[in-house]
Amino acid sequence: MNNFIKGLPKAELHLHIEGTLEPELMLEIAGRNGIKLPYESVEEIRNAYNFNSLQEFLDIYFDGMKVLIEEKDFYDLTTSYLEKAHSQSVRHVEIFFDPQAHTARGINFETVINGIDNALLDGEKKFGITYKIIMCFLRHLDQNDAFKTLEMAIPFKEKIIGVGLDSSEKGHPPSKFKDVFLKAREEEFVTVAHAGEEGPSEYIREAIELLDVKRIDHGIAILNDLELTKYVAEKRIALTVCPLSNLKLKVVDHIDKHPLPEMLAKGLVITINSDDPSYFGGYINENYEAVQKTFGLGVETLAGLAKNSFNSAFINDEMKIRLCSEIDEYINNFE
Ligand code: HPA
Ligand code: ZN
């Protein structure tokens, strides 16, 4: 089944570009930028990746990305992700970036967006991977900071399809960002939000009702609210689920405790994604493989998950149909 997953055309809809920074590249970029890291080797870095919570991960994640200074650093980071994505049959990607984590260190918004966007542009030419960019607000910061970030993004509107919400979830509900999301919608950004990862199902409800999100990132707490589950399933609001992330951050104790089977049984639109693959021990295919193996998912379910990824992407219907037919063709030719 791993061979089937390997060649299965798919989209990745929940991917933080800063979370793709592999230790090798971190050391290389630190070296050329003259940055002293608290680690000497790739092994030491990997050994530090043991997390008991989202916050423990975030501390290391924000620290690691401090090596990114120049436009070329963001370009190289994104290019190296695209090479990996191409090798895993990713046809379309919608990537998150965290501007505030960079502007707070004195890096210009422009440096970040241009580095990422140029790499995606070149990656599309080279690999045929189409893309969208989503800018996330850090929810541990205040709404005012998010407003300032939105202002910075407006001149780059053509390059950014939407806004999202990430970082420390507990104690930072979607309602805290109601006004800035309204302003973003007025500026014609689509909206998404991390909700129900470590936080309660109530945050998922808020994200839908107050932020008008078109997808929920993670959302695995949804099953605690049956009425909401029914609503989200009926409205076909997709959830971007990241199984290895949930395991690594101890949101679930064991992969076989993951709520994915029940979420599928409730008719929710589920997509499988990698979140921060460098930190969580696997890219998108390793995430598909983990749930396939644990829950014995068959070809039809896997293909359904991949079709969900295309159908829930921020692309036009013509593209959705073309990409989904690539899946059908793949299945027909698969031995
Ligand atoms: N949750 C919240 N914020 C994040 C994550 C996540 O999984 N990854 C990167 N920022
Ligand atoms: Zn995430």
Please give the structural blueprint.
Elements: H1 2-7, E1 10-16, H2 23-33, H3 42-47, H4 54-64, H5 71-87, E2 90-97, H6 99-103, H7 109-127, E3 130-138, H8 143-153, E4 162-166, H9 178-186, E5 190-195, H10 201-211, E6 215-218, H11 226-235, E7 238-241, H12 243-248, H13 260-265, E8 270-272, H14 277-280, H15 284-295, H16 299-311, H17 317-333
Parallel strand pairs: 1-2, 2-3, 3-4, 4-5, 5-6, 6-7, 7-8
Helix pairs in contact: 5-7, 16-17
The structure holds hypoxanthine and zinc ion.
Zinc ion binds at residues 14, 16, 166, 194, 217, 275.
**The CATH top-level class label:** Alpha Beta
- Poorly predicted tracts of residues: none
Largest sheet: 8 strands, parallel
Strand order of the largest sheet: 1-2-3-4-5-6-7-8
Q: What fraction, in percent, of the residue positions are helical?
A: 40-55%
- Counted up, domains total 1
Order of helices and strands: HEHHHHEHHEHEHEHEHEHHEHHHH
Full CATH superfamily name: Metal-dependent hydrolases
CATH architecture descriptor name: Alpha-Beta Barrel
Structural class given helices, strands, pairing? alpha/beta
Average predicted local confidence, pLDDT: 98
Put simply, the count of helices is 17
Rg value: 19 Å
Q: Termini separation (Å)?
A: 11 Å
Question: What do we call the CATH topology?
Answer: TIM Barrel
Into which percentage range does the β-strand content fall? 5-15%
Shape: globular
List the ligand species. Answer: hypoxanthine, zinc ion
Number of separate strands = 8
